From TrEMBL:
The chain holds residues 547 to 824 of 824 of the full protein. It comes from the Bacteria. This is EAL domain-containing protein. Residues 23-276 form the EAL domain.
Amino acid sequence: AKQDGGGQYCFYTEEMDQHITRKLQLENGLRKAIEQEGIDVYYQPQVDVRSGEIIGFEALARWNHPEFGFIRPDEFIPLAEETKLIVPLGEKILLEACRQYQQWMDEGHDLERISVNLSAIQFMDPTVVSTVESVLKQTKVAPAHLEIELTESIVQDSTQALPVMNRLKKMGIQLALDDFGTGFSSLSYLKDFPLDTLKVDRSFIQTIHENEKDRAVVDTVIQLADRLGLSVIAEGVETEVQLDYLRSRGCAEYQGYVFSKPLSKTEASALLTQSMAM
Ligand code: C2E
Ligand code: CA
Ligand code: CA
Ligand code: CA
């Protein structure tokens, strides 16, 4: 029994060690990846529900670790936030995404926007406004074509985040509230925040066909956006049935696997060229 217990104990600490070791390895790896361009930006099309045309792209970070292989943003973004590495990482992604957007425009594509995710931590960093300014200047992207996606977690720190949001808004940048409906129960911040767009979280879209309550939520968000003078985009649209429903409800834009997964810049360029030729 003693041996068993000992064994279990050892096993347990080993697991913990492995967990901590992986975390440390990832943290060091992340630092290196940021320095050495080891993080890629992928692009998911944002699509006009009626015309089926590509309106823009959302930039999504991808990390191909030399040892562990592909690591999902759900794992490394929280780590980047914890270690504040999200600040230099976010800056790189913003720069890369804006560069790519401008390249597509220079090649003759007509895209309304590039959407970039900024974490709440970045909004707490006072340099964020000058960073955005400098990226727009370097890449010659007009502010109206940049959309910044933020999540409701920003509400918690709104005394710091609100002035930043207002300054970005004043520059002419678009602000979208991501994962809408999953965060805070109070909606009062909607009237204080200078938002342009609500993004309906994919959890409500996914079960639209089987769940009357999810339909009610989606309908309500679309109506709410309309009443508040905001645009609305549905994310995580995977089936034609879901898309048909959104169309019937007057939802203007969507993203999702039914149209395309996030693509490498080469794949995204090919898709744009192909849709231009049609
Ligand atoms: P998000 O901003 O809500 O991004 C949408 C996520 O849904 C992406 O996951 C995308 O690949 C996935 N997705 C798109 N269409 C579908 C669909 O039809 N079905 C399903 N099941 N999923 C779909 P991804 O790329 O793994 O990113 C996860 C999260 O990581 C993002 O959620 C965002 O919160 C964060 N993230 C990714 N890139 C960045 C970044 O550059 N900066 C920051 N701050 N966060 C990022
Ligand atoms: Ca997003
Ligand atoms: Ca989202
Ligand atoms: Ca999310």
